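Practice problem: predict the structure.
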Amino acid sequence: MAYFKIIQFKGIAPQVSSRLLADGFAQTAENVELDSGQLVPIEADSASVLSLGSSNKRSVFLYVDAAADADKKWLQSADNKYQDFMRGPIANDAYDRVYWTGDTYPQFGTSSSMISGTHYPAVSYRLGLPAPADKLATSKSGTADATQIPNSVSYVYTYVDSVGAEGPPSPPSDVISLTDSETVALSSIAAAPAVPNGVGAYYLDNSAGAKKRIYRSNTGTENTQFQFLAEIPYVDTTYSDTTDADELGEVLPSSTWIGPPNDESGTYPDGMMLGLVFVANGIAAGFTGNTLCLSEPYLPHAWPADYRISLEETIVGLGVTGNGIAVLTEGTPYFVTGADPAAMTAVRLDTPEPCVNKQSIVDMGDYVLYAGTEGLVAISGNETRIVTKGIISPKQWNADFDPTTLQAFRYEDTYIAFNTDGSGNDTGWIFDAKSENANITTLALTNEVRGGYIDQKNGDLYIIVGATVLKWRGHGSTLRTLTYKSKKFITPAPTSMAWVSVEADTYPVTIKVYGDGTLIANYALSLSGSVFTQTTSTPGSISNATLTEPVMRLPATVAQEWEIEVSGATIVNEVCIAQSIEELQAT
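Answer:
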């Protein structure tokens, strides 16, 4: 006598023969979560949370949260652009700044500029400020103080935008001799900087508080430090200096504060900075080509050239963990650590695991997951490993899991991936690394998922479907239909299984039984009061029946390989197939 019973359900392992799968592992595990060991269907998505400006959006960012979906404020990417948004690192920022990369050049916006009209951001600005192109002109007047040794002085000035961000200085003016009794007229203060390629704008609005700051050297050479002299309205183009040498203020802080790589192809042949992320200690990071870029702490407009780290391989994307940055490249990954952007160190990891897709990179907390050439790769500190090894073969990974097109997110401590290849064959899958079985399940999608957003405050995942944003699994009262197909159970010799049972929390459920690869039974089981109704579909050698328990007779079939498939929008606790009713009940 023989029977097979499943009470502990697990995920799929495509690399393993269906005859050799461990107990509970499946050939199919779709639209299901397995945390409890039961088959639990996942919830349907919510109704539309947001109507987008078009059906070509790839990224959104929840800027203003609100209790009601209608009151939430979402930023949207440009059409067909994957953009990385980052909230400003300053706590209680009066301007509520958000920064992003992935469009035409790095940008930022404020609450007053972004939130107007119908679709946001309404207005944005170039990130970073340029140095004034020309040096100041000087004209000295007055009589030198004969009792004072003259200082040899020089001047520079900077732009300060409407939210107080300061740019790098102009070239120093010609050196002149100066005593405290003399006055210097400064001119040639540019009215406004040129905009690269004539596209976009800096946030230099005089009415909103933009300024210019003038600095003067105190000891007299062009190579010495410059100290604060004056701050003037942004529209002013002249200034009269009557300040004594001992009245100068703080040293110029922004001598190295250039903007991030932008759309100036002559300066940045590898293109603008991409992949903006917040690291720690107020530091932001991004990349261009094979160069990792780091900002001044708490100053995302300032990206000193001295803070840039050149690597051997072209960078694909960045992942942030608690103790550093995983820099993922077209070749070997790197791990970058340090608390000060001026002293960050990059370690080239031992295992060459290229990243094939920036959108696959997900911060899982203590480690980063991403799509490699041979499977799903994890980086934790200086360790690299393929977490799908032994579960998915490299050939299956590349043929069936579409690593180059997937986009992934962290959801309830799982890695959830949506495959979007434009073919209309939209699928998804989930890798549950926290499970001792490293469960992998699949998703049946009715629409293409074009992008998404994770709310870091509560872990909610929002997905872009067409021209709308939906909350993933946000419809708690409506469940998707799960499908689970068991491994192949092998009997020592050809055997006739006579009974199949399924225990679920609610009904209906559908159960199919296969013998030697052929469908021999296809039943729909429903429950009304205490009476079960079995409805038979093709093949139909067993008639419809009324039952007192969820136990169904199988047609007479002799086979050696047996498979059970169950589906339904309900929790399934166990399934069993047996030769005799006594054997079934005894289990």
